[in-house]
Amino acid sequence: MYVTLGLLFFSFTALFSLFSFLIFVLRLKPWCNCDVCRSFLTSAWASEFGNLCDWYSHLLRKSPTGTIHVHVLGNTITARPDNVEYMLKTRFDNYPKGKPFSTILGDLLGRGIFNVDGDSWRFQRKMASLELGSTSVRSFALDIVTSEIKSRLIPLLASVAAAAAKKREEQEDGCCGVLDLQDVFRRFSFDNICKFSFGLDPGCLRLSLPISEFAAAFDLASRHSAERAMTASPLIWKVKRLLNIGSERKLREAVRMVDDLAAEMIRSRREMGFSDKQDLLSRFMASVDDDRYLRDIVVSFLLAGRDTVSSALTSFFYLISEHPEVERAIREESDRVMMAGSDEVPNFSDMQEMHYLHAAIHESMRLYPPVQFDSKFCQEDDVLPDGTLVRKGTRVTYHPYAMGRMERIWGSDCLEFKPERWLKNGVFAPVCPFKYPVFQAGLRVCLGREMAVMEMKTVALTIIRRFDIRVVGPHQEPRFSAGLTATVRGGLPIHVHERS
């Protein structure tokens, strides 16, 4: 009996693999003879470029219009500011997130703000705008960040630096003071966003660096949700989901854990009362009675607030390690602004005066945006400002990563890390958001961008003033793993030294 069942399972698996391959081939059938499609089909990018986003950047630079169409994916990709403005502002209603996108992330994000269009999006947008724009919420968020820096981030880095110094004194061999900074920032950001969203402290950044089941489940759910977009056909992951096998089974288990925690938090908050609480869950409870809807809203903010901040900080410290002159300039600026003997964590007024630091953070995200590209789905036939015809149902993608590397947008030094490009007479000068859509732009511009930048600046300056951070190993460009946000493959191993 068991042999028969095994044979049946083996046969089904083989047929399923064949079926998946046939779907992929059928999707390739209408491919055209252009260089773009030939390159895609032969995976030429893998041998020439470290990252898929670098390959796209290469193709977009070669394109006379700054727009390409990958026929096998049904995807129009652009790196033109006028096209971005057209999609995100001028014809906003014709370029929604779309059902294909919301289906991919539906199990994790449900009806959350980043996964819906129309009235549901407008309601959440209005509600979030009122809450995130208030002074009390921003002060609450900064207090959380400051506390996490003082009680966990600084002690962790100091302990690693002290251990490294002791090994050097004792002349011991080994990789002393090595730490995965990307992991540290992911833990730091997860602690902060959980406190801010749920009023929950997972304690991921305690000195022992514990494994949080909730954080692990959230990571797993994010990763497998992103993998859905990589499959040759949605039918493949939908069949796996129906049969509850493979990655879809793991995704379901991870989402169930996230659901259980969210449900428990909501139930507890309703029983204990929420009128005196400041976290987002408590604030949204005043306007939303549907517990499942509440869960979707808050989990969406968890995803946005955790991965984007940790990704941006990881890239920033990679660049700082490669450019010590920028590090020196940031320290000199902080010495001018902050009083001698002032608190180790800068306050809000100090941050407002640090234009060079602000420029360095923005320059880092120009080269390494946390969200490397974003897609919409065209509702009706349209023509982009550059003359590109877009058919109904076509996926249209704007590519911030590629845009940061376009000479026609940023000049001949576009590949250089130069915070000075953001300064005029020493004062930070913002650029058109459609030229720099790192926080999106137009009607969907990120509501939490000011709080996110403030968090990044506070962390960056605190670390730079107290520690020397250097990436371990030879110089090489970051390699990114596939995902919803930019994650450095293998992490970012660093040496930590405390400054005298």
From TrEMBL:
What Gene3D superfamilies does this protein map onto?
A: Cytochrome P450 (1.10.630.10)
**Which interval of the chain is the signal sequence?**
none
Source domain of life: Eukaryota
Cofactor(s) this protein cannot do without: heme
* A GO molecular function held by the record: iron ion binding
Q: Does the keyword Nuclease apply?
A: no
Q: Which Pfam families match?
A: p450
**Iron keyword on record:** yes
Which residues are in coiled coils? none
User: What keywords tag this UniProt record?
Assistant: Heme, Iron, Metal-binding, Monooxygenase, Oxidoreductase
- Write down the InterPro entries for this protein, in alphabetical order: Cyt_P450 (IPR001128), Cyt_P450_E_grp-I (IPR002401), Cyt_P450_sf (IPR036396)
Q: What residues does heme bind to?
A: 446
**Entry's family note:** Belongs to the cytochrome P450 family.
Q: What is this protein called?
A: Cytochrome P450
